[in-house]
Design brief:
CATH class of the domain at 206-360: Mainly Alpha
Radius of gyration: 22 Å
CATH topology of the domain at 206-360: Lysozyme
Structural class: mainly alpha
Number of helices: 15
CATH architecture of the domain at 206-360: Orthogonal Bundle
Number of strands: 2
Shape: elongated
Largest sheet: 2 strands, antiparallel
Strand order of the largest sheet: 1-2
Oligomer: single chain
Length: 370
Amino acid sequence: MGRQEQPLDAGDGPLVLFALELRELRRQAGSPPYRQLAARTNYSASTLAEAAAGRRLPSDGVLAAFVTACGGDPVEWEHRRIRTHRLITQPPTVVRPVAAGDAVLSAEPPVAAGDAVLSAEPPVVAEDAVPSAEPPVRAADRTSVDPAPADVRSARRRAPRRQPAVLRRVLGSAVAVLFALTFGVCVPGDSAAPGTLTALTVQVPLREAARWLHPGTDIPAQYRELITEAGTGCPEPEITPALIAAMLKAESGFDPNLSDPANDEYGIARWTPRVLRHYLPVGRQDTVPTPPFTAEDSILAMGRMLCAIAPELRGVQGDPALNLAAAYRTATWVVRNHDEARLAALKPYLNEVSDNLRRYRPAPGPDVRP
């Protein structure tokens, strides 16, 4: 008889809660011994047991093996893992109040710790894995989860002399907008997956969208601003408005009313409700949303998800943008493990995304990301 698992308390935080949910999945599968689960996977019994021990998050490959062996949905559980990783690595937000008289000219807006946190994910190591186990996720340069502490100091500047009130308001608004565009669209808090967009509030003018999307294409005008927001709020270079647009075209043909109950997919980005919840704004992730989904929720959530999974695909052979599109349709471990059968089934979709990308990319310019 195997050793009994150590009891866990759900009140000890998201990591422990995740482990308890994994244990519950195993219980619903009939509580098979870990040795029996190991026989169904490429991982040892001790590695699978560690996944539900509540000490660390399992890698995506270990989690997929555990969940699949227990009859669960590995794609849904991958997104649970990403959300849990975000929750346990998000540093506290630092708020530095600015006196009303200072306005924007005399003090930069405080940079909350979360604003700089779309950063490096530490290796998630599954111990005692067999030699065929995939390598741990490589630490990212900027984007994913668990960054180095952010410098949240507010640098104060002295104005040579006090400008007229009207000028102060105009300049202050300009600086505030610039700050929001630079910092306010990218934090890892509970509103998005690691290294992802927050609930974007800064509207991108159509003239700005023209820098990122080729004019004269079939991208609907009413979605260009949202697509530009979703594709420019993440520092991962392969995530661009052109990629967002290319995927939306392949997913739904830009149809916001798409409904595919047989596959449980809805809206312009073909979201599955239980997956979409993890990429909605803060305060809306505790409940599985009910379709129909708005184009705004769907498009911005696509940007958040791509930004969340991009660090897990670094170093994987192939086109980084198409790897992201493949992972969006399946899961990161499918792309990282080069699952030939699943990737072969995606070939028509990826070919369409690739063709769309060529059409939607703007002509190269000095201000446009390649």
